[in-house]
Design brief:
This protein is mostly helical. The protein contains 16 helices and no strands. It has helices spanning 2-34, 40-51, 56-84, 90-93, 103-120, 123-129, 133-157, 165-191, 204-239, 241-265, 268-277, 281-317, 325-340, 342-350, 355-377, 381-411. The relative contact order is 0.12. The mean pLDDT is 80.
Length: 412
């Protein structure tokens, strides 16, 4: 978490306010590509825990088939994106300053990297499925460390001073993510020598069998991207990239405790999958109940953070900010809502009970952008976008805990 803040700080200083806002917008757009695997990586996380104890050949078949399927999807994405850049001016759509040239090419470069990372990034699903999420967390820490060190060198030693800084940041993020992903994939295969990734193990029936489950995850992922990542696009379009930078800095501080909680909960997807199959329903109910009580501490922490955030930003970036109290309030509510459902999402995903989540997330995605635009027009500014997001995820925040306890109580 410390490295995330250090990386953000050096990126902010390296790019400046406007280009940092532009970079954050680009990153939010390409985040779509990270999830365009039709949910197959989530299939691995759900099914691998039970397969590892049974047949390594079945594991090799599942993993190889998923990898090859994602490679095919990635090639299609690259071709479509390459063709679209000749017909669509993304800079005009986002009202980006005309002085910044080559936005389409920059966006395609980042998309190209993100599609390659989409393939290589499946190592996270492999480790999660093997209930070794600590390795995933270590890999993420290593990525942040390498990015920070490289940007620190470029910033303080002024290397490649004639090159556009936002291009340097794009290359650093892309190359580091790819390199670390390849390294950890090879390490997983080294530690599991009987598991092979090869076209020889490709089985179309496996792909077809898991398409229904994968598509459900895929639709949920797409809807979550619409709900969570379009904020940056809307702020860029209606308020400019400078406001994106200010919003992102505040949001990153609020997201810090949320990411810590999610990192701690990440093993539970596979754990719930295994314990539910083993019929350990009392343990599951006890775990969910404890989570509810501990979450009160999280709410208190967010309230304290709201009071001291301006001082933290000055200490972090040496920038004086005076974020409106109303914006801080709605962001804190948004973070609390989003974090609360994390445990229940992992439980329901792990036991493959995602139909209700699917319907509610689709509903949230449909209403999100129209509500945000209406609130912007009514004069709520950036706060209106956050309120719109809160309204979009409210049904999910209420329904998933209720559904989870109903399932467990019915089993008991």
């Amino acid at each position: 978490m410390v490295l995330v803040f250090l990386t953000t700080s050096i990126t902010f200083k390296f790019l400046g306010n406007n280009e940092y806002g532009l970079w954050v917008t680009i990153y939010s757009i390409i985040s779509w590509a990270y999830l365009l695997d039709f949910g197959f990586s989530n299939v691995v996380k759900t099914k691998l825990p039970t397969l590892l104890d049974k047949s390594e050949k079945e594991v090799s078949t599942l993993i190889s088939t998923i990898y090859i399927g994602i490679i095919i999807i990635s090639l299609v994405i690259i071709i479509i994106a390459f063709l679209l850049q000749f017909f669509i001016s993304y800079s005009d759509f986002l009202n980006i300053d005309e002085s910044f040239s080559g936005f389409n090419t920059l966006l395609f470069l980042n998309l190209f990297f993100s599609v390659l990372i989409l393939i290589i990034g499946n190592y996270k699903a492999l480790y999660a499925g093997a209930i070794k999420t600590h390795v995933v967390e270590f890999s993420m820490m290593l990525i942040q460390l390498l990015v920070f060190v490289l940007l620190f060198i470029f910033y303080y030693f002024n290397f490649l001073s004639d090159t556009s800084r936002i291009w340097i940041v794009s290359l650093v993020f892309g190359v580091v993510n790819l390199s670390v992903g390849i390294g950890f994939t090879l390490f997983f295969l080294y530690r599991h020598p009987k598991i092979k990734i090869s076209h020889k193990y490709f089985d179309f029936s496996i792909l077809k069998k898991n398409t229904s489950l994968g598509l459900k995850y895929f639709i949920i992922q797409i809807c979550m991207i619409i709900i969570y990542s379009t904020d940056y696009v809307l702020i860029t379009k209606y308020f400019g990239s400078k406001e994106v930078a200010n919003y992102d800095v505040v949001l990153k501080l609020f997201q810090a405790p949320m990411l810590l909680v999610i990192a701690g909960l990440s093993p539970f997807w596979s754990i719930f999958s295994k314990t539910f199959e083993e019929k350990k329903f009392h343990w599951i109910k006890k775990t969910l109940t404890i989570y509810n009580f501990l979450f009160i501490l999280f709410i208190i922490g967010i309230m304290i953070l709201t009071l001291i955030i301006d001082k933290l930003i000055f200490w972090w970036l040496n920038e004086n900010t005076h974020t409106s109290k109303f914006l801080l309030l709605v962001i804190s509510i948004y973070i609390i809502m989003r974090t609360y459902t994390a445990m229940y999402n992992y439980f329901l995903n792990g036991i493959n009970k995602i139909n209700l989540s699917l319907l509610l997330t689709i509903f949230g995605a449909i209403i999100n952008i129209p509500i945000c635009i209406i609130l912007i027009k009514l004069g709520y500014g950036v706060s209106g976008i956050v309120i719109g997001t809160c309204i979009s995820i409210l049904p999910t925040t209420i329904a998933l805990p209720i559904q989870s306890f109903r399932i467990i109580n019915s089993k008991l």
